[in-house]
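#lab-general

N.A. 3:47 PM
ok so I finally got the sequence cleaned up, no stray characters, all 441 residues accounted for. can someone with queue access submit it? mine expired

B.Y. 3:52 PM
send it over

N.A. 3:53 PM
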Amino acid sequence: MTSVGLVGAAAVDRLLHRDPVASVFSGKHSEDSAPLTITVGHERTDGARREVFLEWVSRLTNATAHPHLANCVSAGLTESGRPYLALQTTRRTLNDVLDEEGPLPTGQVRAFGVALADALAHYHSHGLIHGAVQPGFILVGANKMLQLTGYDNTAPVLARPLPASVYTAPEHLDAAVAGEVAASPASDVYALGTVLYTALGGTLPWARPDVECVCDPLVRAAPVGPIRGVSPAVTDLVSAALSPEPQHRPTAFDLAANLSGVDVSAIPAQRVAPSEIPSTQLPRTGLRPVTVSTSTDLELYEPKQEPGRLRRRLRKITTGTAGLALTGALLGGVGLATYATTNQDAPRTCPSNGDLAERLPGDFPEGTVADRLCDRGGGEYVTAEFRPAGGAGASGAREESAPAPVPLVWKETRSGWELIQSGDCGRRSLPGDVADFLGCD
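B.Y. 4:20 PM
back already:
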């Protein structure tokens, strides 16, 4: 197929997946090089977000020098300023293996656990949090060599929330149900514990057909029991990683050390072991795929802006102070604590003129936002004037052909700042001073 363009040094040829945040393509650096999966954000990134993303990229490229972490071949910003991430990939994932082969031998799962826990420990040591440890993001190479991938799920600017599943730690269920991102090293360990328990053929107590939602916190508090026919030498360690209390789980480093200390020769041959894996433990929807069997030649995505709609430079999880708290947590690893985007106690921060300009609808002409005034309407509104390019001459006098300034108002909501244009005077909820600014009768 004909390449549709270059992303960094990689030639992009096929679209694999697209969601509101990014597009995922296949590509190569050269004809004889390994295949790549390339994630490209839809929106240009600049200012503080650019620095946060590039700092994350620096940490990632240093962290992926581990045999069980997918190699980050290149990452950065395209010529148009959009973030991208290019990773080496394979055609199979652990999800495929479990679907085809069913539960795996205890010794093999124990070896997988050591490899993946060590990879997570290495990843965490660089101040990074994965947030998507699931069978679909674990690549399987030659000789069943495992590599963890899917770093973009908690990457600044590229991140998107995953649906709640059996791999979601109990402390993050509320955020997942709300469509927000929350991640921590402890939740990575929990997810890995679920992967290993699933690979052994264990049926999680909250993943039964008669359980309507895996998000019920009371159901998720149930202890994970032993697996019939499987050595408790391994399942006891895996169950510890599945503790409903994050402080009671081992770290990724401790989990790797504990599993590696198991005497493989002492593991008895499996008898009456599970023969299949419940479908509820192999999620297939809502994730950015690593590979897709069919694909289509398409041009790189250029988002179309609808009149009156915001230009979303940041996703919900990176909008406002809550998003900054999350990205700071992902980069800094402060205390290896739990970070969520539902922090309602964070102090309100007035957006800059440049940040407001980035949130204008796509049909606005070139210009600047000026005369910003925060704390309107009890602190929930920001008023500003939009000055189209050429709106003032060198002496400050308005040119005859220049359009008049446009009054604009942003309202702070849980998902960010919502633009209210002058045509929205019909909103009954507008405070008096905001309505006056818009010229409402």
